[in-house]
Amino acid sequence: MDEGSPGGDGRESCAPLRLAIVAGSTIAFAPLPPRGSVVLGREEGCDVRIDDRSVSRRHAALHVGPPLRVEDLGSANGTFVGEQQLPAVTARTHRLRRLSRESAEIVVGERFNLGATTVVVGRAPVGPAVEPDRGHAPEDVVVRAPAMVALYEQAARAARSPISVLILGETGVGKEVLARTLHARSPRASGPYVELHCAALPPSLLEGELFGHEKSAFTGASQARPGLIESADGGTLFLDEIGELPLAFQVKLLRVLEDRKVLRLGGRTPRRVDLRFVAATNRDLEAEIARGAFRQDLYFRLNGISLVVPPLRERRDEIAPLARKFLEEACRHLDQRGAPRISPDALGVLEAYSWPGNVRELRNVIERAAVLCAGESVLP
User: Fold this and answer.
1) Mapping DSSP to helix (H, G, I), strand (E, B) and coil, where does residue 341 land?
2) Can you give the residue ranges of the FHA domain (predicted)?
3) Fold of 312-378
4) Which of 46, 54, 158, 270 lies 20 to 30 Å from 256, alpha-carbon distance?
5) In sequence order, what E strands does 171-285 have?
6) Angstrom distance (rounded) from CA 350 to CA 352
7) pTM: predicted TM-score of the whole model, two decimal places
8) What is the pLDDT of residues 68-111, one digit of tens each?
């Protein structure tokens, strides 16, 4: 689909461009400017840095138009532009033309290669044009396995009460999706849904982010700002990876859970808050308590009810529908006209794999397949 082509609901064709970069077994995304040129290469000074030894230090330039043009900058291993044709037979063929200090015009959704790295120009996902996130659970959540059906039934019952919920499960199983479902099915669904990844911020920033601060509380605090706890008033606060929260902040969080009041940094008067706490972790918190890394009293406060999300290897009925869903989403974001089908052999491989990274790993594999697939079927 070219830049002027309509797509989706009209918003997606106007979505900002981005690069999908497949290097080895990893896929990464990089935003593109509306116009201008970006240099792709291995050295630090490049606009888009690619950590692949087959990519030259300054390998190629992408000129964002219209039209879109990729230009080789004298790379050692070459820049290859894919050309897809539909011959008389049904299968599509894929040919590569090497560029050498020249440029070629490409369209959105077309792939090109820098050495062994594959790059596709696509569009960033566009969400609905709504007000700030209210945490509505996705309508297309895949729930097929009996264990997941039972889990979501239990979650629906828990959602109706104000009790705190602790979600347990391995990395990548879908704990955040379940947290959003709890909020969406609760009496607080019309209130805010606020997330904090407890491992994402250093301790020096975590306190201000969580509790907020008053004006002049510290150097640079030119105005007062509420923290995430206050921002979730009337709704739900989701604390992801709660096991990573430093002990010093566990005490302060416990006080909020017990008193339902929050004191901003530099403040003197606590502010009353009304919110529901949902926390998640991939750690064994009882083991963390035993070694002194997590407070037992905070654990009891958070663990009003615990929900355990099973790993993907225990819900193989969901692998095929999840893979198809992720493939359709990836192709839509890459502006590809239609998603290829996943061959029975490829599905067999997916269903036989143990998926240590769970749903997150499956999504990454499927996104990579969407970028690399040159035919009408995804093959093993």
Assistant:
1) strand
2) 38-86
3) Helicase, Ruva Protein; domain 3 (1.10.8)
4) 158
5) 193-197, 212-213, 225-226, 236-240, 261-262, 271-272, 276-281
6) 6
7) 0.68
8) 888 888 888 888 886 432 232 223 333 445 554 567 888 887 88
